[in-house]
Target: ABC transmembrane type-1 domain-containing protein
Amino acid sequence: MNTVGFEPAPLAGTKRLARPELCTFTAVIAFAAAAVVVVVVVVVVVVVVVVVVVVVVVVIEAVVIVVAVVVVVVVVVVVIVVIAAVVVVVVVVVVSSSSSSSSSSRSGNSSSSSSMQYLGWSLFFLLPLLV
Model:
């Protein structure tokens, strides 16, 4: 009995492959294609995640920069308003004391005490602005 080249009969309902090496080659190609698809999907997901993280970081930094600029502008405006208010109070007190000094020589010392009261009340109301 010669067994060289003997192949068993195919199972019922199946076809015998004409060239089994083609089946193996097709499986290798399919596996390689699936691996390439998986690698491409992973690379795309990683790129999307990196882009989203970079965009979020840039947006957060932009928001932080905008908030910092707004805070600096508000602080500068408040300081300017406080300085202007103090200058106005000092000018009013100096003007009222100079006018009261000319009138105090005629009527006594009562107007200079009223200008000091005005200065005291002005500083009392400006004190919260300084804090």
The radius of gyration is 46 Å. DSSP finds two helices and no strands in the chain. The mean pLDDT is 73. Residues 20-130 form one domain.
